[in-house]
Amino acid sequence: MAEQDAAETWLPSLMTETPQEGFDLAISMARRAVKTTQPDVDTLKLLRPTYAADATDLIQVSGVAATWFATIAAANEYWRD
Amino acid sequence: MAEQDAAETWLPSLMTETPQEGFDLAISMARRAVKTTQPDVDTLKLLRPTYAADATDLIQVSGVAATWFATIAAANEYWRD
Amino acid sequence: MAEQDAAETWLPSLMTETPQEGFDLAISMARRAVKTTQPDVDTLKLLRPTYAADATDLIQVSGVAATWFATIAAANEYWRD
Amino acid sequence: MAEQDAAETWLPSLMTETPQEGFDLAISMARRAVKTTQPDVDTLKLLRPTYAADATDLIQVSGVAATWFATIAAANEYWRD
Amino acid sequence: MAEQDAAETWLPSLMTETPQEGFDLAISMARRAVKTTQPDVDTLKLLRPTYAADATDLIQVSGVAATWFATIAAANEYWRD
Amino acid sequence: MAEQDAAETWLPSLMTETPQEGFDLAISMARRAVKTTQPDVDTLKLLRPTYAADATDLIQVSGVAATWFATIAAANEYWRD
Fold first, then answer.
1. Greatest CA separation found in chain F?
2. Which superkingdom heads the taxonomic lineage of this protein's source (chains A, B, C, D, E, F) (predicted)?
3. What digits encode the pLDDT tens for the residues F26-59?
């Protein structure tokens, strides 16, 4: 990760007000893990047309989001209250 | 995600009356995660004949749904009462 | 999903008498998720010779069943009593 | 699944004496899920040389076993006593 | 599995002193599941150059280890004390 | 793993101060599992251009990180306090 990214606080908490915000956090954590591995935004932009038009990749993206979301939902006790 | 989609409340809660509604919510969350990555509905329609007639993709879809469902089921305490 | 399928109650509960029934329910939920994505039974029948004779697909099927089963087992408190 | 297999009680319980027995049960449940999808033993024997000499398949087999084992371990409260 | 392997007690417990030992146990359980499927060590040695120089396989190996580790960590209550 | 690596204490605890540190630990555990399988750093460097410019691999990396993170988050009780 680029140094200035590493110093940045991007994940202060797993707590969100609603499940939908939890879903959005899951998406952003999934993307952050990709960016941690490939920090070069231009490369990521080049890759977008490939996976965004590939059914297998899109299905896999959903599975990855589901795994991040599972942790966020447990953290928020499933927003039961 | 298109701006007006982002403002829309599509996930007010993880709670459902029955496991079957929980299953349906899992399917819709799985699809939403795909749409969050590929908002263009025409592209998604173009892809449908590919994955809907591909055994490996269909098996993967079921695995993704299972991961979303696991979280929804835990949220609803497995509809035990 | 075809309208009459959607109205049908196929998942009244996650509770089963035995782990083996829980295993069978996991298999049927896994298959239901496929059918929700590809409702056309003829297409599914056409695909069967492909995945049922493909080692990678069969291994993936088992992994998918394991994920569905994990939720059903937790729902039934692992049939400990 | 062949009718006489379906009637057979092969999974009376998830409880095992030791983690190693739990590991063995996970392997057999993983294989059972494959057999539920492909009951023809000859076909499975034909497939063996393929996956048993394929690194990607063997790694995937381990991941599948891990998912089955996770449920069995939780059922047995991790054999802590 | 070769008979003498089956009789051998290789997994007396999931308990480890430290997370690092838990990580090592996860790696060995992951490898054991592979060996249960392919007991022939020569075949496994032949495969090593393939997966050990394949990015996709190496990423998959890490995911498999993570699944085994998740169970071991839960068994040890995350070594919180 | 090289002997001197094996003796090194790299994972004293799963506890971290913040979710972000937990995310970083998940990334490092994911990489450690790869290094345990392929200790040769030069080989890993050779592989980097492949997976770091491959959408499918990058998505899979995120899924693997999510699985490691799930365990670390549970260990830290989701940093709720």
1. 43
2. Bacteria
3. 999 999 999 999 999 999 999 999 999 999 999 9
